[in-house]
Amino acid sequence: MTQQRALRIGMTIGIRSEGEGMWVNGIKQNALYLAKLFQHSPLGHSVVLVNTTAVVLSGALPWDTARFPVRSFDEMKDALDVLIELGGQISEEQTRYLKARGTRLVSYCCGPEYVQMIEAMIFNRRLADTVFINQQYDAIWAIPQVMETSAPFFGTLRRVPVREVPFVWDPMCLNMRTRDLPFEGEYRPQGGETPSSKRLTVMEPNIDVLKFCLYPLLIAEQAFRSVGDAIAHLHVTNAEHLARHSPEFIGIARYLDLVRQGKASFVGRYDTPQFLSEHTDIVISHQWGLALNYFYFDVCWNGYALVHNAQLCREIGYYYAGNDVEEGARQVVHAVQHHDDDWVAYRSKQRKAIVPYLATNPELIASYDALLAGLFDMRPGG
């Protein structure tokens, strides 16, 4: 067993523009959380984010670049012990260069690529003009929520066994976004001591079958039929295009009491923290094959009621199993009627439940240090 030691670690990101925000997708947050974890190792790793695009950076990025520096591949190609390919892919030529140096190359898989690829094939959704499958990784690390759908896809094409690795989260990005919001973005009951009707929110991406708004919409409808005006309104984000241009979506929605009574709005894209702060008491979510997500932790960390079916983190929020709309509705009704009974204790409970996933958790750090050490127990190339 190789003795653990401080390593020079690079993690790829793909920056498309200098002003690109962290809430465009989860990849940059993922890189920052993993970088923070490595920085907290007692071994003293050095960590750099390696940009794989041609965008020239001049300090306009939305995070602390002194703490999380960003460099180009050419700047870092001779200064790394490990390169973790996460948010941007390196080329075949760049791979050969690193392998010749003895740099260990890891594919860190945090997206449901099998599902995304077959949807591209079936529905003609262009993902790339050409497909490059790198078959020179030393290891493939995949987070738990993509193992079921995508691990065989990764392992077969990349010719390396897939290793499940722990999910990592941190409130740092959430805190950066909420520091200027009322109560720093944390949940507060509306109406003071007088109970008020609750605002429901659905914030699924609505770009594939894994996280779509229809089941949450049905759950909200069932809850509304039970408690009526105790529900003030339902907002469904990332759904304006569906409400305007999808005959099937429109055709279903018009049968719902929430829609008929003007209690539902289908709006565009918003970042999570601001929409929660301004429009939300209870979030309803549904997933199908993606049972861990930063969104769940963003919601629960700040004390908002989350009704969800993500079995890999069933200990947070208000859980219902599978596609059980009736149970989901019961959980919504319970949150409507009782969430405010002890909302401070709820927030504390959520944060305690999220501790195992934190980038600063010593047990999680030790797990990743062992993974890093394992890279040097194998011959280069796996």
TrEMBL record:
Recorded superkingdom: Bacteria
Protein name: DUF2827 domain-containing protein
Organism, scientific name: Paraburkholderia solisilvae
